[in-house]
Structure formats: C-alpha cells, structure tokens
Design goal:
Distance between the termini: 39 Å
Largest sheet: 2 strands, antiparallel
Order of helices and strands: HHHEEEEHEEHHHH
Number of strands: 6
Structural class: mainly alpha
Helix content: 10-25%
Number of helices: 8
Strand content: under 5%
Shape: globular
Length: 395
C-alpha cells in the first residue's frame, strides 16, 4: 500500500535553476497554453543536451516522464489551473486529481487505500510510485512499473503518428473547443496517442484517440454547464491497455465487469428517458434540456467535433452510448476504482472520505464531490448515481 505522504515540492540538490526555468517557460512566457505546440523554445524546458538526469535518449531534466509533466502540472487547482496533482484535492479537472493516490482513508469497518483511487503513475520526483498490487493493467499487459503520463499522452502532440513517426509537432490538442487557424493541423484530444502511438512499456495502440471537446469557458474544470463533450471512441481508446475489460467477461479482484461500454452500448430509449427526467432519488420531474450531470457523462455518438457543445446541459438522445468515463475518472478520484462517486456507498451521504475518517481532512470531504454538497443538493436519501441511467423506485 502507498502510505499517506505530504506532497513534497523539494527539488533534488543541483537542479533548482533548471526546474525553475522550466516553470517559468511553462507559465510566464508567451508560450502559455501553447507550450506543447512544438518549436525550439519549449524543448529545453524538459530536455537538456548536457544536464539531463535521465540516461535514456529522451535526455530529461527530471527522473522520469511523469516528473517532467508534473513540473508544470502540479500545484493548486482552479478553473484556469493546468494542475492534475494538487496539494489538497483542489484540481477539479475532468480526469481527476492524482492527489488522491497519496490519501489513505479508514473508518470503523472499512478502508480506502490511495493506490486504489486511480492510475498509479510513476513520478519519482513527486513521490508517486507504481501500483503495489497490480503488476499489469487490468484487462491487458501494460506493466504498471512503466505507467506514466506519456503512457497515454504524447507531449509533442499526436495525430496520425505525431512526432514519433516523423511528422512535425501539431498546432494544439483540440481540447478546448477552439478550431485551428491558418490551415494548421489539429491534434488529438488531450494529446492522446492514436493507433500508431508506441509508448514505453511495449503497448501497441490499435484504437485512435477519442473525439471529444473541452469547454473553453472553464478550460481545466468540470461542471454541469462546462465540461468535456464526448463524441465517440473513449472506451475503445481505453481498450488499448484494458482490452479485456470491454468484452464483459474479465475479472479483477474477484469482481466481474459485465457492464457494456463503447460505441455498441447505446443507451436505449428507456435509459435516455430515465436520464433526461431524473433529478434525484425518487424525483423524475427533470427535462432533457437541463439533464446533463457532471458525475454521469456519456458519449453523444458523433465523430464530428463541431457538433459537440461542451457548455450544453442537453441530455442524451437515441445516438448516445455509455463509456468507461461514464463511471470512472481517467486520472484518479477520492473513491475506489477511480469512481466518479463512491461505488461502495448505498447512499451517497455515506460516502468516504467522510468527516471523522482517519486520514481525511475537511478539504478531502469537500473536494471529493467537486465542491458539491450532495446531501444538501440531492437529499440525504440520494442513492448511487447509477440511478441516473437505471432509475430507482420512489422512497
């Protein structure tokens, strides 16, 4: 198990200037959010010809790829913060906060270890270590000791093979809803690797990056009215490493994963009607125009980016399907299995972390549901958010 750890920002002796320079380049220069668009300037924020710490051909300034990423993507969260690793759970991004990997919670009769809260990326400089229990990706063969940010994201930009296959760096990830200008090539959502990506660890991706669009109103946050609009291909992309999880028969830790997911897992008219009318346990008085709930996203079933509106609260229609991220977060969450809610709680008011849990702070409780007080908003009798699709009998 990974024990509770304070998030250390202490830099190894001999390289404070290099890391500080990287942070300046990332945050304070004209590169801004275009940092990953390529060019000679940003290269030396991550790589060094003569002062690299990594002996590999990448010549990294930090101990490993994730440590490099977290030099810019760690810190306090917020709607305009690119942090995915905060000191307190405040990085309320769609993917979640790797902070939860460092938090172990326990209470009378139960526990929730940090290594079960998400993808255990290896970032030695930030005290993030491999999964202590799983040596391979559930449903696949990717080694957990190799898991890093670049197992999923190409930092140089990825489209049709990206820089790995000789193409130039792309103009941007397409994450935020802005279209490329001047005939520039638009990259994959979130710089995710496509079917030609070959991350370290031997994975051979076969599925292309998903079609999705992040709101430009709140670029690094998630709310009902500002979120990622998922179009198609998310589950298939997750299957690059977790392929057997998609066939309905894979078992992990004694549990059988049989929930359908992906393009073929259409919601069906009954589920669509339930999602669009469901407001809370026992209350089905909602309307489709305002039905979207950030804790239960779905794919709209389109590969046309322009048809996706990440600021819309419109519910699903007959083209929509369930996907892996309907129930899970891609990075980490406060709950087991990187759940968007606590799968183990019959009532969400009984979720952990809770006030009084060993290892839990007041901020942990507040940020676990992205600053929303579920008991106040949905009622103390609110059941699991599975009900958003599957309904529940009135109390």
């Amino acid at each position: 198990m990974i024990s509770d750890r304070l998030l250390s920002r202490t830099r190894p002796a001999g390289r404070p200037f290099l890391v500080a320079a990287a942070l300046v380049l990332c945050v304070f220069t004209s590169y801004g959010y275009a940092f990953h668009e390529g060019g000679a300037g940003p290269c030396n924020a991550c790589h060094s010809m003569h002062s690299a710490r990594s002996a590999a051909e990448s010549l990294l300034l930090s101990a490993d790829p994730s440590s490099i990423c977290l030099n810019c993507h760690a810190g306090s969260g917020g709607p305009n913060s690119p942090s995915v690793f905060s000191p307190d759970g405040s990085a309320l991004t769609p993917g979640g906060d790797f902070y939860w990997l460092t938090k172990n919670f326990s209470w009378l009769g139960g526990s929730s270890p940090g290594d079960d809260h998400g993808h255990n990326i290896v970032a030695v400089d930030h005290n993030l270590l491999p999964d202590p229990l799983l040596t391979l990706a559930p449903g696949g063969t990717y080694p957990s000791a190799q898991l890093s940010c670049t197992s999923c994201h190409d930092p140089h930009g990825q489209t049709s093979g990206g820089t790995r296959w000789g193409a130039p760096p792309v103009s941007g990830s397409g994450s935020y809803g802005a279209e490329p200008s001047g005939g520039a090539v638009s990259g994959n959502f979130r710089l995710l690797g496509d079917s030609r990506y070959r991350p370290a660890g031997g994975a051979a991706f076969t599925a292309d990056a998903p079609v999705a669009r992040q709101s430009s109103v709140s670029r690094f946050a998630e709310r009902d009215g500002s979120h990622v609009a998922y179009g198609a291909g998310m589950s298939e992309w997750c299957g690059n490493c977790h392929g057997a999880m998609l066939d309905g028969g894979h078992r992990v830790e004694g549990r059988s994963f049989t929930h359908p997911s992906g393009r073929g897992a259409l919601l069906g008219q009954g589920v669509v009607d339930t999602y669009n009318s469901y407001l809370r346990t026992g209350d089905f008085s909602g309307t489709a125009a305002t039905a979207y709930l950030q804790f239960v996203p779905f794919e709209r079933g389109t590969t046309t980016l322009q048809l996706l509106d990440p600021n819309s609260m419109q519910g699903p229609d007959a083209n929509a399907n369930v996907m892996c991220l309907t129930c899970h977060r891609a990075h980490a969450s406060a709950f087991p299995d990187a759940g968007r809610w606590d799968f183990t709680a019959g009532l969400l008011a009984d979720s952990h972390p809770a006030v009084g849990d060993v290892g839990a702070t007041v901020n942990d409780v507040y940020f676990s549901y992205y600053g929303r007080n579920l008991a106040a908003e949905f009622g103390a009798g609110q059941g699991r958010f599975c009900e958003k699709c599957h309904g529940a009998a009135p109390p």
